[in-house]
Design brief:
By secondary structure, the protein is mainly β. Helices cover about 5% and strands about 45% of the residues. The model is unreliable at about 1-5 and about 10-15 (pLDDT under 50).
């Protein structure tokens, strides 16, 4: 199996060696399973793969950060949903005659223990579109938040979208293969605390 896609996730920019900013939300092991789309570029895997990440946030704002392979990038966290996008130039053997960029967008719900229990310990079918149980004090369902025991977030449920695009597809002086003009793969994202 090729795991170039995993390498794209971990290396969308130069690696930083400083600790991630903000309040820790936990370390996670994330599994990705392709659900639609494909890339003809052979170095981009359409296979399932996994990786580890660290989430942090500023509890006073919606600012958040995701750290993959010692590289930290910005994100947002609204108290339930986490979003981050990264983009970087990539070099693929098949696309050596053109410049390509990989854009990666992660969107997922962070589920508290009570939300995950209310879902019978599985991710909802539509985690980004109404599938997450709303906080309900009477039902004992709370949003993910800081507690005396640490951050109450036990599961990530959502998607990751990887898009390969040529940045010089309009330049007729290059011999950019049609496979390198662009493609998108959408993955189901699920993650558990480490």
């Amino acid at each position: 199996m090729k795991h170039v896609a995993a390498m794209a996730v971990c290396c969308l920019a130069a690696c930083a060696r400083t600790p991630p900013p903000g309040e820790p939300m936990g370390s996670w092991n994330v599994q990705l399973v392709p659900i639609d789309g494909q890339c003809a570029v052979t170095e981009v895997s359409g296979d399932a793969f996994s990786f580890d990440l660290v989430l942090t946030r500023d509890p006073e704002t919606d600012a958040a950060w995701v750290t993959l392979n010692n590289y930290t990038r910005t994100a947002t966290f609204d108290g339930q949903y986490f979003s981050s996008e990264g983009e970087a130039a990539r070099v693929f053997n098949q696309c050596s005659q053109c410049s390509v960029r990989m854009v990666e967008t992660m969107n997922f719900a962070v589920l508290s223990r009570s939300q995950f229990n209310a879902l019978m310990s599985v991710c909802p079918l539509e985690p980004l579109d109404g599938g997450v149980p709303a906080p309900n004090e009477d039902a004992g369902i709370t949003a993910p938040s800081r507690t005396d025991q640490g951050f109450d977030g036990v599961r990530l449920c959502g998607e990751l979208v990887m898009t390969l695009r040529s940045v010089n597809s309009d330049d007729e002086t290059t011999d950019c293969a049609s496979d390198c003009q662009g493609c998108t793969v959408r993955y189901q994202l699920q993650g558990g605390r480490r």
